[in-house]
Input
Amino acid sequence: MDKNFISRCLTENKFKVILYAVLGLAVWFIAFIIPYITGRYVDSLIYNASKDTIYLFTGIVLAVNIFSIAGSYFQNLIGAKLNTKMVFEISFEIYEYLKKVPLSYYKDVDSVYLVSKINDDSNVIVNFILSNIISIISESLTFILGTYIVYNISPLLSLIMLCVIPVYIFIYIKFRKRVYDSSLSFKESQNKYFSTMTEQFLQMKYLKTHGLFSFFSQRLKRSFEILFKKMINNFKATYIFSNLNMIITLIINIFIIFYAGLQIIEGKMTIGSFTIISTYFSNIVAAITFFMALGSSYQEMIASKNRLFELVNIKTENNGTVNINDINQIVIKSLTFAYDGDLQLFKNLSIQLNKGKIYSIKGRNGAGKSTFVNVLIGLFQNEYSGEIFYDDINIHDLDMYSIRKNKIAISDQEPQLLNSSIIENLILDIPNIDNTEVDNWCKKLGIFNKIVSVDNSFNANIAEKSLNLSGGEKQKISLVRTFLKDAPLIILDEPTSALDIQSVNILIDVLEKIKKDKIIIIITHDEKLSCCIDDVIDIDSYK
Output
């Protein structure tokens, strides 16, 4: 994946970004001219008071403020939409990329930490862009035009203001690395802390079973202590970096009050001009402060961007381009697999799987039965030695993403059910499924009556308490989903582990009827299935 996903996101939303910027600049311009209008209004009241002047200035202020309120509303509405949409688009691109990273990468990955990292960093980047796309222009104009206005009233005061700039540049150079490092460290500890918090609930059964209340509490406290220290360090760095201007601002403010007061007494400056200088000086200082703080937020954004770049630098798995319409035969030659190149699960495994047969994968627990299947369907590309051919085509040349979606159906030992409706869990992404076919399979496997007995029937959410699915019922849903796919390769992992005798017999009957057009692989310890098995692959014999 290229690293242009951020600029690509901006390009795709460019018209809305431009509209957001135009509205923001219009609102800024109104806010910018109000002090000047107010200052001249004060002078008019003091030196040339009339009702017409009052009417004129009141009308102008009313009109520009109404426009400002309306413009601000639409700008913030567009900004909210843009923020939400762009954060999703950046996160979505990262998620899509990570789906194509080798499965082995996720073995030691904390998923909660990973999700938090992607979401937080995407938000930081988008917030930085949208917050500053207008502010950089408006604050630059505030500084330039504000200085020009002040210069026309008092050249000396404008020059003093300009002398402040080198001080701020020095402060930025001095503190930028410290701010970047502390920001990056704080983000990492924040993600790890939230991961530890989530762990308390994910491991609740384990916690209760082993009475590990104190152990888990201490883990959370230690994680918080690390977060707290990092937060303090980050606060100190950013606070010092962003607020050293207060002393400088205070000194110049005192000088302006003193100098302008003398000028007014001597008749060289009007009160209205003083209010203009005072207000625009505050605006100029705010602009300088913005650019100083921009350095801090820029370093934070760079830290977030680099963290996302680390993810898209992870090497993706290889996936071929060849598609096939059917699977008649799978040939495996000298297949050897070892985790991390150390723990060898099987060695020199050579077999041929043919359509019309049911194969049983056997072996002791941990022998590598599930791993063998994962290698067979291409989940561990380039992590094994040997060769795998689907109808004489090397698996490395095949588009296994498409084949797994359309030509392979798998029922896991622990069924993966989504927090969604029953019907969505049954059909997932299977195209053109007829409701009658769904009903028939549910009836065959004895789950239909359970489904129609609950409110909303097939549209009921799988997580609803009223549904209260047993382990066997969840397994039946998984089996229905597998058979609905009507794939030429079917893999069943311990399909009878939660089924009663009657359901096992029904499953055997189904397998016998459909095997003519399928290659069926069953991982099982259940001897009841032996009556329908054509061949046994004993993983323990390939050590």
Notes: The radius of gyration is 34 Å. Strands lie at 329-339, 343-354, 357-362, 384-390, 393-394, 408-411, 489-493, 519-523, 535-538.
